[in-house]
Each structure stands twice: as C-alpha cells, then as structure tokens.
C-alpha cells in the first residue's frame, strides 16, 4: 500500500505544471530561476557561455536569443542566467521568468545530451564514477578526498546561490577549482573561496592542502 501511495505521489508531481520563482544571488549580474520540480536529473548540470555551445541544449540556445544573456547554467531544479552590463534585471526578469515557464511547460527538450565525465573504472577509488559533476578525474587518493569534500560540504551551499564549484587539479598542495553559474565573476566569490572553501580543505586535509585558487573555465 505504501509503495502504491509513493508511486501515485510521484505521478502527481510529474503532472504538475512548472512554476518558476526568482532568487537573487550574491553576484549582481546573475539571477536564479528556480522550478517547483526537477529540470534535470538530480546531480546533473551544464553551463553554456555562447550560443555556439548549445547544439545539445535547446533551451539555452533560445535563451541566448535575448541579446543581454552572456551565460546559461542549468542544474537540477534551477537555471542561472548571467547578463551583460547593458541592462538591469528589473527590466527583463519577469519576461525571462515567463519565457522559462512557458518553455518548460511546452514539453520541449531542455538538454538532449548532457556533458558526462567519468572516472576510469579501473582507478581503484571507492566512488568509481562521477557523472555530470564536471570534476576532473582524480589522479590519486588525495584528489579523490578533495572531490568528496567539495561534493559533501561545498556543493549544496554553492548551488543555493545558483552556482557550482568543480575540482580541476592539485598542484603542489594548491587546489585549483573552477567556478560556474552565479559564482563566475562574482565579487564575493574570492571571499567564499578563501574564508570558506580553503579554510575547510586546510582543516580537513592539513598535510595536503596549503591554498585554493580559482581558474577560468
């Protein structure tokens, strides 16, 4: 009986129309459009910085038709948009909310092919496959632990602000990360990087991490 109720609940949620509400982010040129249900499968994400990258992302391609959109980041139940300096959000936010709502409710495809990155299955690590997180595959156990910390402690908080942080590499105890979505170019991201992420990694991995720096995607 319980299984039937859960199944019916899931079906009812799937039948609900998309409702979009807007959240501001710490980055003044980004805005987060949050849906009442999943847009992508949980854990999946994709970022597009030009219309030329949107071959497999119809919704991103259409969003770039707005001339002031400079970046589209899609993850789970939200879309983060970055704008140019030529316009203010108050002039276009409602138009964008209506557009995204209508698009999602039209049953058009959001993304036809997600960017997938896999850790080689013979790597020997406990978590052998990381899908759609955009982390670089770890070369050793230390890098694997860094990714685990980012996934467990950092990613949920960053996603609340409409962004994403991914691991790139470890260079002589310096962790190189990449910031996406609202975190890209955000004035407060440096504070978050040093006071939050760097401090946490140095505390959890004191013998392996001295610094955390961000590089462009």
Question: Key features?
Answer:
217 residues, GMP Synthetase, Chain A, domain 3, alpha+beta, Ribosomal Protein S8, Chain: A, domain 1, five-stranded antiparallel sheet, 8 strands
Any overview of this molecule?
By secondary structure, the protein is α+β, with helices and mostly antiparallel strands. It folds into two domains: 2-105, Ribosomal Protein S8, Chain: A, domain 1; 141-214, GMP Synthetase, Chain A, domain 3 (2-Layer Sandwich). It is 34% helix and 23% strand. The protein has five helices and eight strands. It has helices at 2-15, 58-63, 89-105, 141-160, 189-204, and strands spanning 20-24, 30-35, 45-48, 69-75, 78-83, 163-171, 174-181, 211-214. It has a five-stranded antiparallel β-sheet with strand order 1-2-5-4-3, with helices on one face. The model is unreliable at 2-11 and 117-132 (pLDDT under 50).
């Amino acid at each position: 009986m319980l299984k039937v109720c859960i199944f019916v609940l899931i079906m009812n949620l799937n039948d609900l129309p998309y409702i979009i509400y807007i959240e501001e982010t710490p980055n003044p040129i980004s805005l987060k459009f949050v849906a009442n249900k999943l847009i992508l499968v949980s854990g999946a994400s994709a970022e597009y910085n030009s219309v030329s990258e949107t071959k497999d992302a119809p919704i991103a391609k259409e969003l770039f038709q707005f001339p002031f959109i400079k970046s589209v980041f899609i993850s789970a139940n939200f879309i983060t948009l970055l704008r140019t300096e030529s316009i203010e959000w108050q002039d276009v936010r409602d138009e964008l909310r209506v557009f995204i709502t209508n698009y999602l409710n039209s049953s058009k495809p959001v993304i036809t092919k997600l960017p997938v990155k896999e850790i080689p299955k013979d790597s020997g690590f406990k978590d052998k496959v990381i899908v759609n997180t955009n982390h670089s595959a770890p070369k050793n156990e230390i890098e694997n632990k860094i990714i685990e910390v980012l996934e467990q402690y950092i990613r949920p908080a960053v996603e609340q602000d409409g962004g994403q942080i991914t691991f790139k590499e470890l260079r002589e105890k310096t962790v190189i990360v990449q910031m996406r979505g609202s975190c890209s170019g955000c004035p407060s991201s440096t504070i978050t990087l040093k006071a939050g992420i760097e401090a946490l990694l140095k505390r959890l991995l004191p013998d392996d991490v001295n610094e955390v720096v961000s590089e462009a995607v």
